[in-house]
Amino acid sequence: MNSALAMKDKFKFLCHKEIECFNKCCYDLNLFLTPYDVIRMKNGLGLSSSEFLKKYTTWHIGFNTGLPVVTLRMKNDLKCPFVTKEGCKIYKDRPSSCRLYPLARVKVGDKEYYYIVKEEHCKGFNENKIWSVEEWLKDQEAEIYNKMNDLFMELIAAKQRIGRKLNHEEIQLFYLACFNIDEFRKFALKKGILNKSMDDVELMKFGFKWIKEKVFKV
């Protein structure tokens, strides 16, 4: 693996429509989606969370975490459902991992590390545009994604600390509160655990806190 990059460290990369490999990175992906990814994508498409999840995703229980893992469903030809000849049709609301590419982010405690992801097909590294990690994150508007995804990772860490498997009902509640935000809003209002209007992002944060208290008992 390449050495970790600090925020001021430089790398060379550029992706554009004229490059030979354009769109090749949008093929046969195992693309994990975070709750914030789902909110941005479903709102950008004008869909409810239920509609988006049913049409564009699959989910399974993660081997290490025992928690629902949501992935983007590729088309039958293994292409991303949002890729076109002109590029990504949801570019403004593209998921975290697409946004960071060609960087990968690792957070350990209060420290974050970035690594270059070099794939054989990618010719972007032959271009002459030079970025610092900090410049790339700002250009790709990745800061808000990192912030929201860190909150989700805190929730996963809380699950790991309780040292037990979740039962079926608890898994369903986790999936509801984290990913199916529109249905969680209905659930929370009906159960009386939500007594004020919240936008999707604030409701997501509320859901994380509720799962910690209700399901994880922490």
Report what the structure shows.
The chain has a three-stranded antiparallel sheet. A two-stranded antiparallel ribbon has the order 1-9. The chain folds into two domains: 10-141, no CATH class; 147-214, no CATH class. The model has no long low-confidence stretch (mean pLDDT 95). Helices cover 40% and strands 16% of the residues. It contains eight helices and nine strands. It has 218 residues and is α+β, with helices and mostly antiparallel strands. Helix 1 (35-45) packs across helix 2 (49-56), helix 6 runs antiparallel to helix 8 (200-214) and helix 7 (181-191) packs across helix 8 (200-214). The longest helix is centred in the C-terminal third of the chain and has 20 residues, at 143-162.
N-to-C CA distance: 36 Å
Shape: globular
User: Going across the major beta sheet, what is the strand order?
Assistant: 2-4-3
Helix vs. strand class: alpha+beta
The whole-angstrom Rg is 18 Å
Ranges with pLDDT <50 over ≥5 residues? none
Mean pLDDT reading: 95
Assembly status: single chain
Question: What percent of residues adopt helix (DSSP H or I)?
Answer: 40-55%
How many extended strands?
A: 9
Number of domains: 2
Tell me the fraction of residues in β-strands, as a range: 15-25%
SSE order, one letter for each helix or strand: EEHHEEEEHEEEHHHHH
The largest sheet, given as strand count, sense and whether it forms a barrel, is:
3 strands, antiparallel
Annotation keywords:
218 residues; alpha+beta; three-stranded antiparallel beta sheet; two-stranded antiparallel sheet; 8 helices; 40% helix; 16% strand; globular
